Amino acid sequence: MMIELDILKFATPVEGVEAFSTTRGKVDKRNAYSGVNLCDYVGDDALRVLEARLTLAMKLGLDLDDIVMPRQTHSCQVAVIDEAFRAMDIDKQEAALEGVDALVTSLKGVVIGVNTADCVPIVLVEPQAGILAVAHAGWRGTVGRIAKNVVDVMCRQGAQADHIQVTMGPSICQDCFEVGDEVVDAFSKAHFNLDAIVKRNATTGKAHIDLRAANQSVLKKAGIPVENIVLSQHCSRCEHDRFFSARRLGINSGRTFTGICLK
């Protein structure tokens, strides 16, 4: 198995930090899991998932247990990956990662990451404090302002919000993200500026939400300068041969892994 990484850039380069998203690689159009999938709870063959994780670890020069990812449930829960977590046995680690959708760490040589297939992967770093974070923001997590929760946890660990750099991995674009009015209502009730994130398809009348812009607004209100936030130009649904897309491939498909590491 070969793994090619899409390297994510911050507005200001951060020395010693690598942020990336996996790409699918070789794709068999008959198999929605084909390519590189590191997510072990979406129905893929367990041995293939293990092979992908081992291959990534080798590519990064790390051990398998240096790659940490949560079992996501579209929650707004954030976990801190520290020495106490690393000292736990595997069962306790898995329990600590259950129902978690964002991770924060200051450990070197550890990759923290999330799995997505249209949702927005948000990667954050506070260079001066040496604090990293990553979050999975679908529409539910965005409505719940998971990005703000992550910034709050980073600041409690010693970060300053106005020093944080943010970049986003591939996610569904606004044109592809058609939603029902109940989703628009959820954003309205959460006091998002609908004019800035919602548009209607002139032909169908259906609403389309810009999840990237919505998360950008959350990050700005959390104290991060807009010039520190880089939005991805890759749409997972448009580029489903390169990145996994549940909207295009179905829920029973692989996931793109987006991670960050302090070398």
Descriptive notes:
The chain is of the alpha+beta class and 263 residues long. It contains 9 helices and 14 strands. It has helices at 46-60, 83-87, 90-97, 139-143, 146-156, 181-189, 194-197, 211-221, 246-249, and strands at 5-7, 17-22, 67-68, 78-81, 102-105, 111-116, 120-126, 131-137, 165-168, 178-179, 198-200, 207-209, 229-230, 256-262. The strands form 3 sheets. Strands 4-5-8-7-9-13 form a 6-stranded mixed β-sheet. The protein is globular, with a radius of gyration of 17 Å. The two termini are 24 Å apart.
Structure described in brief:
The chain is built from nine helices and 14 strands. The protein has helices spanning 46-60, 83-87, 90-97, 139-143, 146-156, 181-189, 194-197, 211-221, 246-249; strands at residues 5-7, 17-22, 67-68, 78-81, 102-105, 111-116, 120-126, 131-137, 165-168, 178-179, 198-200, 207-209, 229-230, 256-262.
Instruction: Count every helix, treating DSSP H or I runs of 4 or more residues as helices.
Output: 9
Class from secondary-structure proportions: alpha+beta
Largest sheet at a glance? 6 strands, mixed
In terms of DSSP E residues, the strand content is 15-25%
List the helices and strands and how they pair.
Layout lengths: L4 E3 L9 E6 L23 H15 L6 E2 L9 E4 L1 H5 L2 H8 L4 E4 L5 E6 L3 E7 L4 E7 L1 H5 L2 H11 L8 E4 L9 E2 L1 H9 L4 H4 E3 L6 E3 L1 H11 L7 E2 L15 H4 L6 E7 L1
Parallel strand pairs: 3-6, 4-5, 9-13
Antiparallel strand pairs: 1-2, 2-14, 5-8, 6-14, 7-8, 7-9, 10-12, 11-12
